[in-house]
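Hey all, quick one. A colleague (J.T.) asked me to put the magnesium ion job into the tracker so the inputs and the structure tokens live in one place instead of scattered across chat threads. No bug as far as I know, just bookkeeping. Sequence used:
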Amino acid sequence: MNIVEKIIEQTVMGKDVARACALLGEGEVVAIPTETVYGLAANAFNEQAVHKIFTIKGRPFSNPLIVHIAGFEQAQQFTEHIPEAAYKLMELFSPGPLTVVLPKNELIPEIVTAGLPDVAIRIPDHPLTIELLKTVSFPLAAPSANPFGYISPTSAAHVHKMLAGKIKYILDGGTCKAGIESTIVGFPNGMPTIYREGVITRAEIEKTIGRVEIHRSHKSLAPGMLPGHYQPNTPVVLCDDVDCELAKHKGIDVGLITYNTYSDLIPENNQILLCSGFDLIAAANRLYSAMHDMDERGCQLIIIKKLPDMGIGIAINDRLKRASYR
Ligand code: TXA
Ligand code: MG
């Protein structure tokens, strides 16, 4: 049993930035809040510390991590070249739910980028984590703070549920504002390309830098784009017509996550509405939380209604497709 696999007796949750800072300085892994989802952070310059992230998550080493920084100037320290379009996007959307993929230099260990020549960089927009990033003398490599393939956490309690006993400290920054992950943009051969759809929509990005490609192959580059991901333990079915889907599964214990209207076919207790009215941003904010809650109820099947394919609904449906992939 190595150091990481040893059970940590107690996982503490709190708002103590100095404590998080000290642990990270010692090469430990700490869960941190961001405006998208909670991250599982370690010193990005410390290979052994980063190694612990992979072990704790059960994440394949072929899946690269995002490096979090306090300000864009810091990116110049460990990147080779920053395209004009990346500057424009960062200027407009950082701090915020934007990740840019840029050519790295030797300061970033290979383990962080899974051997890729590029590093993903993001400035998160959360006061506690910004304070933390300004205090430590290194950037923080951090994937979402869930076991590999499971639903991402949007509260400290979600992280505790999934990782208690495996990490020492969860920096508790409350509920994540956005609730789904950042939009990842890379520049292969100079062409701006969305690797992962997220909080910032394609339309918002195109308004800033002109036409962008969407990277649809899951085989390379962004393994978060694996067909199965964000999955509860309970099987998920994604559908357009809730009542029709409920009728197909009559007689089994079903939980329903739906946009804004209850179905009459099952008790309201077995249903979670993502919002009232037509509010895709509120729906994104509640999505993972609803999936965590439904998974805990222990039903046999979770039926989720597809959201309108517009705005942030596109990124939500992307997550739901992967959550329901078998
Ligand atoms: O909102 C977010 O981005 C959250 C918070 C914690 O910042 N982080 C997050 O990390 O979602 P993770 O590890 O769950 O997803 C990161 C995605 C993965 O799909 C990974 O493959 C991709 O980013 N990625 C990381 N480095 C990359 C690179 N150099 N090139 C292409 N994709 C990369
Ligand atoms: Mg993730």
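Adding what we noticed when we looked at it: Residues 1-5 have pLDDT under 50 and may be disordered. The pocket of threonylcarbamoyladenylate (ligand 1) is lined by residues 34, 36-37, 39, 63-66, 97, 99, 101, 113, 116, 118-120, 122, 124, 142-144, 181-182, 184, 186, 195-196, 221-225 (CB under 6 Å).
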